[in-house]
Amino acid sequence: MKSFVKPLALGLASALMFTVAALADDFHGFDPTSFNGAMLSADQLKAMVADAEKASPPKNGKSYVFGFANLQRDIPFGVEVEKGIQQNADAAGVQLQIADNRLDGPTALANAQSFAQRNVDFVIEFQTDVNFGPQVMKVFNDAKIKVIAIDIPMPGATFFGANNPKSGFMGGSYLADAAIAKFGKDKVAKGYFVDGILPQSGAIPAMRTEGQIAGFKSVLPDFPDAQMIQFDSKNTMQESFTQMSNVLGRIPQGAPIMGIGINDQVALGILRAVKQAGRDADLVAVGNGADETKALTEEADLVAATGYFPERYGNFLIPMALETLAGKTLPPAVLQTHYMISKSNVCNYYPNFKCGEDNPKVDYTFPQDAFAKWLGTLASEPALKGYETLIPKS
Questions:
Q1: How confident is the model over 157-169, as pLDDT tens digits?
Q2: Would you list the domain boundaries of the chain?
Q3: Which residues contact 380 (CB under 8 A, 6 or more apart)?
């Protein structure tokens, strides 16, 4: 099933940690190699601004203006990321100009051109189309604007985002354990694994969905490839719903359906299509992101999600931008640490939600040895050449 796309050029604050590909210097109490994800104080952020302005004075002669191009402003993940960035920018005294890339490469390019014309001091870029990454970066390079890229790498930008191989492997292996707990191993062998992927975003997010397959098969190594289905989700719930409605015609009545995808919205599209068809008794689904937290607590067949904590992104991104402007050297990549979030532990990560009971109950242990073995195969993938810093060591 390996199909990497070729590129073109916590919970509690004390528990949420990020990993990086190289060491960084402490900068007013901020070091991405050990930062716990809790928002820094306004005093710390303003001290960062003062240091940054000495090295890189604001282009307007008054105060910094940052551009943030959001993936899409009306999806939960994008909403949470934007809130965190805005909160940190406000505390730092940085003006934030926000654009909506709307999951579209040409729109991202137009937004980049607008930021360049407005002569912003820094850009945080969240865009999904790998084909447009080099074009977007050419705009910023020509304008001498430094960039952090969220989740989809762009040449020359610092990367911030998912540990794609590990988050995928976690979700896939949990899905297999949950399916066995619900249906039994013999019945699962006659079921269908369905994965909503995102080809337009290239090889790096493909490590996430390929990791979902690898994680699933680490628990069920003999599961038939002929019963593993992938569809292009376009990163949206609506497209996932449409594609899954079509896929259901290929799955026999009564066969278990194990659903997962590139994000929570895709998993929910799968879930809703199965429910509309009256086949929810056959379903077990795992999300990716845990930004659809309400659905996780309320939808019986959405049994868990891999946590990404988008509400904390801004706590990293604004300090990283200021550290860059201050002339400090950042690691080339900052990768998140992920946790499996289910109904029984959601309150530990999101206190506004009550913990409930997992059904089915899953005794989950991350299959580290199997993951390490699979991870060792990634370095030889031609599509990942040049992206070695985005492949974790373990």
A1: 999 999 999 999 9
A2: 18-162+311-336, 164-307+339-390
A3: none
Q: Which amino acid is at 252?
A: P
Q: Check residue 228 and give its pLDDT.
A: 98
- Please say if the pLDDT value at position 19 is more than 90: no
Distance of CA 35 to CAs 108, 279, 296, 337, Å?
Answer: 30, 44, 28, 11
Q: What is the reported pTM? A: 0.92
DSSP-derived secondary structure for 74-95: TSHHHHHHHHHHHHHHHHHT-E
pLDDT of residue 3: 54
Q: How far is CA 228 from CA 27, 222, 348, 363, in A?
A: 47, 12, 33, 24
CATH fold label, 164-307+339-390: Rossmann fold (3.40.50)
User: Once rounded to an integer, what is the mean pLDDT over residues 288-293?
Assistant: 97
18 pLDDT higher than 90: no
Q: So what's the pLDDT on residue 22?
A: 41
**Residue range 20-47: mean pLDDT, rounded:** 81
Distance CA(1)–CA(39), nearest Å, equals 41
**High-pLDDT (> 70) share of the chain, %:** 94
Q: Whole-number mean pLDDT of the chain?
A: 93
Q: 18-162+311-336: which CATH topology?
A: Rossmann fold (3.40.50)
pLDDT tens digits, one per residue of 118-141:
999 999 999 999 999 999 999 999
Question: Coil, helix or strand for 100?
Answer: strand
- Reduce the secondary structure of 298-363 to three states and give it as a string: HCCCEEEEEECCHHHHHHHHHHHHHHHHCCCCCCCEEEECCEEEECCCHHHHCCCCCCCCCCCCCC
* C-alpha dihedral sign at 10, 286, 232, 368: positive
All residues at 6 or more sequence positions from 285 whose CB lies less than 8 Å from its CB, including other chains: 175, 258, 259, 260, 267, 270, 271, 301, 302, 303
- Neighbour tally for 354: CB within 10 Å: 10
Q: Name the H helices within 25-66.
A: 42-55
Q: Where are the alpha helices (DSSP H) in the chain?
A: 42-55, 76-92, 105-117, 133-142, 164-183, 185-188, 203-219, 237-247, 264-276, 293-298, 313-325, 346-349, 368-378
Beta-strand pair 257-261/283-289 = parallel
* CB distance 52 to 350 below 8 Å: no
